[in-house]
Amino acid sequence: MSIPVKSCYLRTLEGIPTNVYLPDNTPIFVGRSPETGITDVKCSRQQVRLCANYTEAIVTVQQIGPHACGFNGFKTQKDVKFVAKHNDRLELLYGKHVFEIEFNPPPSVNNFASRKRLYESETKETEGKTKMLKSDDCSDNHSEESENDREEERSPSNGIYINQKTFSTGSSTSSEQSTESSNTSAKWDSVDNGKLLIYTAPSVQNRPKVAAYDMDGTLIRTKSGLVFPKDCNDWQLLYHDVPGKLNQLHMTGYKIVIFTNQAGLSTGKFKISDFKGKIEKVVQKIGVPIQVFIAVGKSIYRKPTIGMWEFLEKEKNGSITINKAKSFYVGDAAGRPKNWAPGKKKDHSSVDRLMALNVDVKFETPEEHFLKRKAPPYELPKFNPKNLSQIDICKPADAELTLKQQEIILMVGSPGSGKSYFTKNHLKEYGYVNRDTLGSWQKCIAAVQQYLNERKSIVIDNTNPNKASRERYIEVAKKCNVPVRCFVMTTSLEHAKHNNKFRELTDSNHTPINDIIIHSYMKNYEPPTLEEGFKEIVEINFIPNFRNEQDRRLYEMYLLEN
């Protein structure tokens, strides 16, 4: 059962972040205004009329202003209504002022039939006028167009467009509903503001068995001999038998899928248009219907996280459940050490093997899969999030987390170790001092002195890695004759990096912490001692708590690109 929609916003994708709230079943006019930050006089103050329907998770959109809007790359016409869904793009002026529809929480399943009924009822008076115009097709003389040309323009890549003959969306189609049906033409999809690109080759069939592959180093390698391709033409098949092997699997009931990380597409190293051409040529060279998932930049879709696999399961396999016991994944990032075979270098990472472990499918290296070689040795990360057991929150176990008498608790721990989480959940009654909030250690000292004057206990939530950084607070405590206890987070380096990555994936407000900062802390760390002036030193174990089961499942997966 899907979670009910609680809110809807029109969220800007340009300039200063701006959100326009769209209440349930209440028409809202959006255009040139202080709220949107748009001052362009071509944009009317009532440029579009928007009406959100939380039950159906749709927004009815109607251009009111004289100048055309844009909807998922297509031009709109005045007074013509159409239906938008979660993540659809709306340009208040065609090509300008780009916004996105955002439902919270995002709808898990699109209610296709109900959106169709709603749209048909609302467009009854405008049937025959609901044509979306491409940017180079602005003429009013359409009488000479063929019906096929008009039908092509009636199928925007996302959202819903309905007229007397067509009903289409950018997600699943009727051809995806059985193992025997297939897409007859190639298709590109962009998901989540371009964080995930999907190429579906002609005749791809949705099936319960999946043969999944990494691309670089698994199906193809560079012609130049370089580790990374110098351009989008620098590739050749890894083995001559790649097409034969994949064709054999396709003929025996497997759906062939590629999952590839391509961070370079987010940095501009390669043009997306050029890379799309490369993908199409690779698939054509292999000669088998393949669906390709491309993680652009760093997001929940990037391996070893399983965002790409989950999108395949939920949106791109025609509602057919994947049989993981009969599916498998092949990749070269397998965590193999140096000289795993004579003269072979250490694998650059283990993300392919870790993704297979996260998904819970069989894993093979290209050599095992194509050349029938024996399984090579490999190393898994030292930190396994699945092994987190329920342990005492502190050591010694009988240590008091809070005291009735006034005191100072000085936290010690790296970024990502869970200091702030611990203090906010277990030391709520204490005064809180944090350098990230106050800006300097001098201001932290002043805040400590003020709390002491008010006879309040205090927790100092800074990293405090060495004796010098801790000494200044101990001196203030001595002058006021207040005891100081030291709480040391036991979180390991890899565990801290895992925590940081988890927060990055689940909290949009979290500012990612560079691994260099965590490594720097560990390098400069000096274990605290009682000789520094502490009344007691207590070791604190990080024990995570989760908002929901989905977060728990994610946390217990390998998240780091080891």
UniProtKB/TrEMBL annotation:
GO molecular function, one term: double-stranded DNA binding
Protein name from the UniProt record: PNK FHA domain-containing protein
GO cellular component entries: nucleus
InterPro entries: FHA_2 (IPR041388), HAD-like_sf (IPR036412), HAD-SF_hydro_IIIA (IPR006549), HAD_sf (IPR023214), P-loop_NTPase (IPR027417), PNK3P (IPR013954), PNKP (IPR006550), Polynucleotide_phosphatase (IPR006551)
Record-level GO BP terms: DNA repair
Keyword vocabulary terms for this entry: DNA damage, DNA repair, Hydrolase, Nucleus
Highest taxon, organism lineage: Eukaryota
Domain PNK FHA: 8-78
Classification of source organism: Eukaryota, Metazoa, Ecdysozoa, Arthropoda, Hexapoda
Principal location: nucleus
NCBIfam families in UniProt: DNA-3'-Pase (TIGR01664), HAD-SF-IIIA (TIGR01662), PNK-3'Pase (TIGR01663)
Compositional bias ranges of the Low complexity kind: 166-185
Subcellular location: Nucleus
